[in-house]
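Q: Got a minute? One more chain.
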Amino acid sequence: MNTQLEDDVRGAIASDSRILDPIDIAVEGDDGVIVLRGNVRNFKQRRAAVEDAKRIVGVNEVVDELVVHLRDDVWDDEIRGAAIQSLIWDAGVPAGKIEVKVHDGWVTLTGTVDYESQIDAAFDDVSMIKGVGGITNKIKVATPGPE
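A: Always. Here it is, folded:
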């Protein structure tokens, strides 16, 4: 166990304004490996906690065992609709190139785009939607064919 490393990660998570209830996140560390457990309110907070842990000097790996506690009144159809709308509004994401499926709050993105940055933009857009518990990103970058 490395209590100083654990304390540093806890401090980073506690000071992150993106995480509303940092006390709900348990931190364990051993030999540069940090394990995060507990509940967060959305996928954005889950990502933030992992990013915070990775920033700490001495952390070599982060094991993410956080669970997004979804509200019962957010339906998959609502999440899908919000995701599609978010992708439409983002000029950095090509219109109509990405399919969105949602099951129990878990979003799966598929499709083909021209640039890696478009994949990143789509992922970021969807990660901020209320009720998203996780994202499987299967979007691919088109490879140019033979000339």
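A: The two ends are 57 Å apart (CA to CA).
Q: Perfect, thanks.
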